[in-house]
Amino acid sequence: MEELKKEDIRNIFHKRDENSNKGNFGYVGIMGGCIEYSGAIKLANLSSSALTSGAGVVRLIVPKEIANGVMPYLLEQTLFTIESKDGHMIFNEEEIDKSLEKLKALAIGMGWGESNENEKILRYILETKDIPVVIDADGLNTLAKIDKSILNRTKCKVILTPHPKEFERISGYDFEDIKTNPQELAVEFAKQYDNVILLLKGHTTTVTDGKTTYLVKRGCAGMATAGSGDVLSGILVGLLGYNEPTVLTISAGAYLAGLAGEIAEKELNDISMKASDTISKIPEAINEIRK
Fold first, then answer.
1. Residue 148 lies in a domain
2. What is the CATH number of the domain that holds 102?
């Protein structure tokens, strides 16, 4: 268990070859949204943070009923719609398969809401696909209702990104114990699953697969605002477009998000910051890591 330093992750952000093309840096997907929590700007922020972090192509996958609300906020991203009812995705194998074509990695759960259809979708992806999957927000709430043995059966590399309350729901550990012993319980949980990397958010973020553990001490009070977790998920899936799904890659994403937030807070202040301000400082943060 060691604190992550920027020199540990410098190679992840190395200069790119002049002959590169978008395919070299991966197609990644972001699946989320529902009628109650469409959060069009938040979803666009998610996809923007993935692009700014280096993914070649970002595909936003949303329920058809909210597509018109999201479209005006998309520029470089692509959009895939899933048939929906009452503003929630409907499970259909063919549609899910098509939405995931070519993807190097997927983030799922942001603004997704809760429904039985979501449980079917998440279970299907974990049981039949073989890609890194970042699960956050309502994706974690959905996972909490599914038999956790699926995490040992899946071929996916699963990246879980809970805050302590979400961690309580998926782990069964007591919230007060998590607050008292976050690192120890994170490692204990991750040891149970061969295909899981756990990113437990906190003042110190813990990233572990049960064998290797990094502590990420970056971030600031200004990041305590709506959408910051979504930005982190976007950064993580963006990095997974062109990096292997390792503890170091996920730790690099947490470090990049925290550093970008610190730069934004320094320029603005801890009260006025928005999640989009963190995104705007990702390029500066990458430059800082490269120094």
1. yes
2. 3.40.1190.20
pTM, 2 dp = 0.96
7, part of any domain: no
CA separation, residue 149 to residues 130, 196, 197, 238, 239 (Å): 17, 12, 15, 28, 27
**Domain range for 198:** 25-290
Alpha-carbon distance of 23 to 13, in angstroms, equals 17
Q: Is residue 17 part of a domain?
A: no
Residue bearing tokens 């970056």: 218
Residue 169 belongs to what H/E stretch?
helix 164-171
Nearest to 136 by CA among 244, 40, 31, 29: 31
C-beta separation of 154 from 126 below 8 A: yes
Q: Give yes or no for a contact between 40 and 228, defined as CB atoms under 8 angstroms apart.
A: no
Per-residue model confidence as pLDDT tens for the chain (291 residues): 899 999 999 999 999 999 999 999 999 999 999 988 767 667 777 788 999 999 999 999 999 999 988 888 888 889 999 999 999 999 999 999 999 999 999 999 999 999 999 999 999 999 999 999 999 999 999 999 999 999 999 999 999 999 999 999 999 999 999 999 999 999 999 999 999 999 999 999 999 999 999 999 999 999 999 889 999 999 999 999 999 999 999 999 999 999 999 999 999 999 999 999 999 999 999 999 999
Domain total of the chain: 1
